[in-house]
Amino acid sequence: MRPHVTPLSPGPTAGPVPMRTLHALDLTTNPDHRGLWRGAGAPAPDAGARAAGLPAEGAASPLGFWLTTEGEGVDPAAPRILFQAPGPVPPEGPKRGRRPPQTVKLRSPIPGDGELTLTLGPDAARIACTPGAWATLEEPVVLACCQYWRFLAIDAEIDRLTESAKLDLRHATMPGLRTLRDGGRLTADAHAVRVLMLDLPYFEGTLTDPYPYCTTERAAVAFEALAEKLRLEEWCELIDERAEAIEDAYESASEKLFEFKNFAWEAALEIGIIVILLAELGLQVWDSFGP
Fold first, then answer.
1. Which of 20, 168, 227, 288 is deepest in the core (most CB within 10 A)?
2. By CB neighbour count within 10 A (0-12 exposed, 13-18 middle, 19+ buried), where does 124 fall?
3. Residues 27/35, Cβ–Cβ less than 8 Å
4. Sequence-ordered alpha helix ranges (H) in 63-130
5. pTM
6. If you count DSSP H runs as helices and E runs as strands, how many of each does the chain have, helices first?
7. In Å, how far are 271, 283, 288 from 275, measured between CA atoms?
């Protein structure tokens, strides 16, 4: 998690995140939290948490999550990283979302530490490994979990915007008075699409070059291995295709809204001028033929 994700225990010699349940709180839903995960000079974890109203014991992931071992007051819907003793992983039942849970294994680079088994789904990541394997694989595994959950959140936002875009196709095809009435919502959705497109390259950057997101070459190589096993690159390509489609749809709708607003203002101005001319003509007629 370092350097972007600082250790959960302070100090320059702090070890890896302890093998306790980790809660991943989404920071991207609150603009006030943006500086914690996107800022060039991120604040110290405790100070940043107090300023943002987050659990004090925690750290910001570069993928927009606050990772904390404090469970009190945490959103129960937030995904979690759970630990269990090495051994067979219990089968996972159906989970929400389109993607079924995935199970992958990664061997520790240190002989004798064994391998780590990761079962990753929309609600939780279940990890079975020895403390030694976790000490060496913690950074890439946590980054991979956050990448998976960030892609899930992006998929959900694209789903929402896609459904809105389907309803708004009529505005792009044949704008009318309803286009003006829905102008506020169209503008808000178009803004959401632009924010998504601006942040997308950053959230996908780990798959292009994980080194800026990791502290060691070993961690970056391990993350690349996990990303391949989880098929994150294929998922990323699908997200890009879907995002481009809604960007095109809302770009067209925004252009039509702008054009129709201009047309409406021009029409209103012309009608106003005609009304004034008719009023003047009426006054002249009254003066000429009135008593």
1. 168
2. buried
3. no
4. none
5. 0.74
6. 8, 7
7. 6, 12, 20
